[in-house]
Amino acid sequence: MKRALLGAVLTAAALCTASCDNRREAESVDRQIGGLPGVSSTALSYTSNISSGESFRLTVNLMPDVTESQVVQIGRTFIDQSRRADLDDDSAQLSLVFSSPDPPPKYPGTEEYSTASFAFGKRSVRFDPTAEQVGDSAAVWLRAARSGVARLVDLTQPLWGEAGDSRQITVTLDPWTPAARAVGLQRSDPGLARATWEIHLAVGDVGRSHDYASTPNPPSDADRALWSDISAVVGRYDEANAFTAPLTDGRQALTEVEIEVPESADSDESVARIATGVPPLLPRFGHPTQLSLRTPDGPVELIVGGCFRHRDDHHRLPLELSLSEQYEKC
């Protein structure tokens, strides 16, 4: 009896795998969207198996002169056709890719793209975005991407566990872009009211950078200059990033600066240079600022102008104690 039952289950699973294979439907959606105005090319990825279920991914490369109404139609067509073929039940994703001819690539021989990704299906998100929500977000994204202010714009919708209209928009600015232009872009579009704004300072080898981000407001000219000064102290061989955002649970300061010095013959010299040069700069942010310095000997944590609350198992290095005495107010 057990063997018969097991055989029936396996047979049903095999039949489901065969019958639930919607590759032909996925290819049909691909062809339909590939023929829409504003589309340069498409790339389809489709898999279906017992262990991981169905996965439908469609990347749509847009023409440089694509319009807002065209990207709205692309999103609506994807949703309508995917639902008609049950392609969005398990895991589906639409990625819009836009490459503007201006500004030129940061590094010779490289290309940069703005991407908007929309996820659907029970394995990807809890709540699917509607066609109207996708259309609204795609229009906001495209306006920012071709604004002439942003170098890149990336959008993800929805966020895991949140409503279908939840989204993360990240606008990458050139380091030399005046703050007034970024502020003007944000004020011109309510959809950017909660965006994250990033600056990447190129250091060392191609593709490496020291990154600063802020939300919801773009970085000020003073913040950009400060981050440039911090980056210069850190140097080309060590990692640095920082983030300014409203306080949420678990965060202790509006701005967090993270620097990592890997093990090397010069690591002691690097740690000494950073410990001497970076903390005096941080008051220029205008509020208590967290510094997390990861060294070969262990982490150094403090809040310049404040008092860091350490975990119970945190071991305080002599360097941390010295910096705390100089810069913290505990």
Describe this structure in words.
By secondary structure, the chain is of the alpha/beta class. The protein has two domains: 20-194, no CATH class; 217-330. Helices cover 32% and strands 27% of the residues. The protein contains eight helices and twelve strands. It has a twelve-stranded mixed sheet with strand order 1-2-3-4-5-6-7-8-9-10-11-12, covered by helices on one side. β7 (196-202) and β8 (209-214) form a beta hairpin. α2 runs antiparallel to α3 (68-84) and α3 packs antiparallel against α4 (131-145). The N and C termini lie far apart (72 Å). 33% of the residues are buried.
Q: What percent of residues adopt helix (DSSP H or I)?
A: 25-40%
Question: Radius of gyration, rounded?
Answer: 24 Å
**H and E order:** HHEEHEEHEEHEEHEEHEEH
For the termini, the CA-CA separation is 72 Å
% residues in beta strands:
25-35%
Given the C-alpha coordinates, what overall shape results? Answer: elongated
Any low-confidence stretches, pLDDT <50, length ≥5?
1-19
Number of strands: 12
Strand order of the largest sheet: 1-2-3-4-5-6-7-8-9-10-11-12
Q: Kindly report the average pLDDT value.
A: 89
What is the count of DSSP helices, taking H or I runs of 4+ residues?
A: 8
Tally of distinct domains: 2
Biggest sheet details: 12 strands, mixed
- Look at the helices and sheets and give the structural class: alpha/beta
